[in-house]
Amino acid sequence: MKTVSFSTTLSQQIAKGNPKNRFPSPAKLNLFLYINNKRPDGYHELQTLFQFLDYGDWLTIDVIDTPEIILTPFIPNLAVEDNLIYRAAKLLQQKSGVKKGAKIHLDKILPMGGGIGGGSSNAATTLIALNKLWQTGFSLQALSDLGLQLGADVPIFVHGKAAFAEGVGEKMTDCYPKEKWYIVMKPDVSIATAKIFADPHLPRNTPKRVLSQLLTEKYENDCEKVVLNHYPEVEEILLWLLQYAPTRLTGTGACVFAEFDSESAARTVFQMKPEHFEGFVAKGANISPLHQLLND
Ligand SMILES: C[C@@](CO)(OP(=O)(O)O)[C@H](O)COP(=O)(O)OP(=O)(O)OC[C@H]1O[C@@H](n2ccc(N)nc2=O)[C@H](O)[C@@H]1O
Ligand SMILES: Nc1ncnc2c1ncn2[C@@H]1O[C@H](COP(=O)(O)OP(=O)(O)O)[C@@H](O)[C@H]1O
């Protein structure tokens, strides 16, 4: 992953003037994540607090009169048919019966398999943008239901507001955590969500608590111990950041984030990082930059 300078925050780019066919696709953090149960279908029930970051990818979309979905650039080791952007576009095409297609260009900034939801966010941005450009008229709830077929985290990005999520992530309650500044670091490993959920040592029975209680207790992530046991690269970065600020894993990793009350405090620590640590500084956002853009 490239370390990107702060002029690339989504809101700064939008403020500079944004073409009508260019849509942001922000990252998310799981500010806490608890696993309450394993369902008979193998999925795990969670309680998690999602917040967006003012940082992410961009999708540029041109509608075409033929039904193809043409996606560029090619991402190594990811077949176009498996790309969540392609799958989201095809799903909306199929459910709406629209005869048009699209050329979609992805400017990928977010690391993949990092627990910051890049793929899910790309899928949600595709659904929302094409629903607008194709004039297919689906409600946000209908797009969220479609999104859930693509991945458990797509609905939060369609929803576009920071939220406490339960179930596999589809039951959402709006929430307004402090919009802190974060250092997000991506260890040089990619972690498959399915692998962490399959680990026999994963805690799976954290008692469910009401949101008011969770917000007052120390925020934790039930996946963290298992991830640290498997990936010393994650532990190295987490321990370094913990010297300066509260730091946790997001999602099932591999990214970790440290929280700060100001941009300058975050940047001061970021500047001291060892050369081989990769990451970025970004502000939390309780409204997704995509929704900020579309509602302006
Ligand atoms: C747990 C979270 C928290 O944000 O992790 P991250 O992916 O962000 O790290 C997500 O909800 C993940 O969502 P997503 O990455 O879309 O997962 P999916 O593709 O739906 O699931 C991948 C696999 O992980 C397992 N899985 C996923 C979610 C869940 N609540 N229980 C599970 O057991 C299942 O084996 C599933 O086949
Ligand atoms: N457009 C996309 N961007 C990123 N990953 C994608 C995309 N489409 C499919 N994927 C697949 O989804 C996996 C998870 O991606 P991502 O959402 O970025 O990570 P995470 O779920 O850990 O936050 C990737 O490893 C990749 O195989």
From TrEMBL:
Please list the reactions this protein catalyses.
Answer: 4-CDP-2-C-methyl-D-erythritol + ATP = 4-CDP-2-C-methyl-D-erythritol 2-phosphate + ADP + H(+)
> Which positions bind ATP?
P111, M112, G113, G114, G115, I116, G117, G118, G119, S120, S121
Q: What class of enzyme is it?
A: transferase
Q: Which domain of life is it from?
A: Bacteria
Q: Which residues form the active site?
A: K28, D153
Q: Which UniProt keywords apply?
A: ATP-binding, Isoprene biosynthesis, Kinase, Nucleotide-binding, Transferase
Q: In which pathway does it act?
A: Isoprenoid biosynthesis; isopentenyl diphosphate biosynthesis via DXP pathway; isopentenyl diphosphate from 1-deoxy-D-xylulose 5-phosphate: step 3/6
List, alphabetically, the InterPro entries matched. GHMP_kinase_C_dom, GHMP_kinase_C_sf, GHMP_kinase_N_dom, IspE, Ribosomal_Su5_D2-typ_SF, Ribsml_uS5_D2-typ_fold_subgr
Q: Which residues form the GHMP kinase C-terminal domain?
A: 211-271
Report domain GHMP kinase N-terminal positions.
Answer: 83-161
The record's EC number reads: 2.7.1.148
Q: Identify a single GO molecular function assigned to this protein.
A: 4-(cytidine 5'-diphospho)-2-C-methyl-D-erythritol kinase activity
Q: Name one GO biological process term.
A: isopentenyl diphosphate biosynthetic process, methylerythritol 4-phosphate pathway
Q: What the protein does?
A: Catalyzes the phosphorylation of the position 2 hydroxy group of 4-diphosphocytidyl-2C-methyl-D-erythritol.
The cross-references to HAMAP family, in alphabetical order and at most eight, read: IspE (MF_00061)
- Family listed: Belongs to the GHMP kinase family. IspE subfamily.
Task: Please report the name of this protein according to its UniProt entry.
Answer: 4-diphosphocytidyl-2-C-methyl-D-erythritol kinase
Q: Which organism is it from?
A: Conservatibacter flavescens
